[in-house]
What we know:
Blueprint: H1 4-30, H2 32-55, H3 65-93, H4 95-101, H5 105-116, H6 123-140, E1 141-142, E2 150-151, H7 155-185, H8 195-218, H9 222-228, H10 231-258, H11 261-268, H12 271-274, H13 276-283, H14 289-307
Antiparallel strand pairs: 1-2
Amino acid sequence: MQYLGELISIGVAFSWTATALLSEYGSKRMGNLTLNVMRMGVTLIFSMMLFWGMTGSPLPASASRQAYLWMMLSGVVGYVIGDFCLFQCYIIIGSKFGQLFMTLAPIAAAITAWATLGQQMRPQGILAMAVTLAGIAITVLGRGDHHKVSLKLPLNGVLFAIGAAVCQGVGLVLSKIGMNHYEASIATQEAPWMLPFFANFFRCIAGIIGFLLLMRFREGFRSLRHNVTDRKSLAAAVSTSIFGPFIGVGCSLMAVQYTSAGIASTLMALTPIIIILPARWLFHQPITARSVLGAAISCLGVSLFFLL
């Protein structure tokens, strides 16, 4: 089908918009760690149902030890550390601003790929980084009372958002390395489109283990036991799992199989613009010319990063 990869990429942008909004609601309702544990568990269940229906086995195809290692490491960086920071920033500054900062993820991925895979850093890429940073600065910086420029958002929320973006970028590179090992050692080629879902299964295994350990030492399991039986909390966890780790992540990895990584990444980076109206309707976050301009410039920076 023509433009299949482009259509998947646009769908992923809307999927991530829904995930961000639902995650903000769920995080504020039940807490960061509780929501993450629940959505990792739900994603694993959905993944096993998918595998069973498509391959006849509830477990993903076997792969090499190197593939398992890289995918688990990607899960620790991308899910445990990255999503912990992301959901915490949703609580502090909201999903609209959180998704704006996530436009920094391609920059983190490029720097990581340069350091680990030997990929070149072109002058065009540096220009794109500058445009992306300018878009974020336009949105979050303003004139203060005693300084010419001041930060309009809580500093801890901004730091969590930057940490989330960096971890997503690094985790993407680790996933790429893991999928290369996975593809080289996979036992079956009956459904190659399943590979991203196979790989993401092991990322979720690392995620749920990491979040359970964090919960054990930070707050215990009382909140988890309560929210598992709460209908609204369970609905939020299931929804974020469907649109996020299950469909969103799996389809984002699938999109690059059907179109170029640059086009896919550019279309998927539209989330900061798509989320502006829903955030206004759901959380009554004001829409300003500065925020729209900043989001548009940041998305332009991501586009330049991949298309130049």
